[in-house]
Structure formats: structure tokens, C-alpha cells
Amino acid sequence: MPDLAVVTGAAGGIGSAVAARLRGDGFSVVGVDRAEADLTDEAAVAAVFGALGPVAALVHCAGVTAGAPAHAASLEDWRAVLDSNLTSAFLCARAVLPGMLREGRGVIVTIGSVHGHAFQPGYPAYAAAKAGLAAFTRQLAVEYGRRGVRAVTISPGWVRTPDTLTRATDPDDLARLAETQRTGEPADVAAAVAFAVSPAAALLTGTEIVLDGGASAVQPAALLRPGPRARLGLPPLTEARPEES
Questions:
Q1: Strand-pair partners of 24
Q2: CA end-to-end span of the chain, whole Å?
Q3: What single DSSP character describes residue 101?
Q4: pLDDT tens sequence across 84-132
């Protein structure tokens, strides 16, 4: 019998690529998306996972990207973003952990974001949720590592999905912020997930893999310049530095 992998957010650009890659690697894959269950609802999560056998790999891709400055965000908005990105991860992890502990093995992969540690204006709830997700995943690694369960966060930068393409002024300009001079593709994230859940990654746990082409290493300085700020739809700084030639 092939190992069972559950991929949440499986209808999204990253989630669908992850599900396809894991199927190709020999997993039996169950994809869960909003059409199947509200992953912020405790009873709904229990019902979905209760119908499954032991889960060898949980890949949590579910979440939303929503932005509003802290002074303008409602408490409802704040809770919705944290619930979608962070509470859902807790509920899904809690659902699969008993089976993993009985089997003495399992991998939990959460899909974070560089926005959990490289910030931009207008996304306080999203940044808090993704930072919390990475911390939660490390906690799982510490808590269950000696019982055979690994936990890893994979944090992409800009990835070409239908969602990110609607939010970028010019997606090609985003590539210029990366040292690799290209944005990510869903297949890039899927490849990292495939490694993380494989036996080859037996020592990989309690850490975060950043997939941003090196952008987070240079982005803070780059975003002080008016050109990149304008292309990303960010407001000008009061004292913007001149663009480099």
C-alpha cells in the first residue's frame, strides 16, 4: 500500500502542483480544499481526517493572502487571516498526529512565506500568521521529533499563481528582485515538498526552507529605491534613495 499524503489547499496553484508531484512520487494523495471542508472549523477537520487512515505526510498549503494596514483592519479581518493560515494548520496537525505517533513516523510540511520575516506595508495579519506558522512548525519538530515525526516549513517568495498575478503590477519586474532573476513556479515549491517528505530528508526537521531566489537577502535595500517600490505598487518613501544605474 502506498503511503497516504494529505494536501490542504489542493485547488490552489501551489497545492495542486504539490498534489500532482506527490502522486507522481508514488503517494496516495487526498486533496482537501474549501469545497470539501472549512479547515478553520474544528468539527469539519475532525470529520475529514477521521475518514482517513494513517497519514504519512501532511502538506498544509491552505491559507489566504489579505491585506489592510493595522489602523484600518477590523478584528474580523484579522481573525479571518489568522484562522485561515494558522488555526487551520493547528487543527490539521492535531488531527494527523495521533496516527503518526502510533506509526512512529510522519512528516508535516507547512507552506509559509517570506512575508513571515521580510515585511511589506499593508499585510500585518498575514505576516503575523506566517511567522506564527513557522514557529508552530518548529514547535512540532521539538515536541515530536523523538517519536519519529518531522516538521518543516517551506517559505516561498513570489510564485506565479493566479492569485499573485492579480496582485502584481508587472510580474516580470518581480523577477528582477531575485538574484536568480526569476520568480518561483508552483513546481519549484512542489519539488521542495517532495524532498522534505522523502527518506532523503531524514535529518530535515525544525527548520524553514526559503524559496525566493535570494530576494530576501537583497530586498530590504532594493525596496528603498523608488523604481521597485512603484512596480510593486508600494507608496513612495519620504526620502527615497536614487535608483542605482
A1: none
A2: 59
A3: H
A4: 999 999 999 999 999 999 999 999 999 998 777 766 777 788 889 999 9
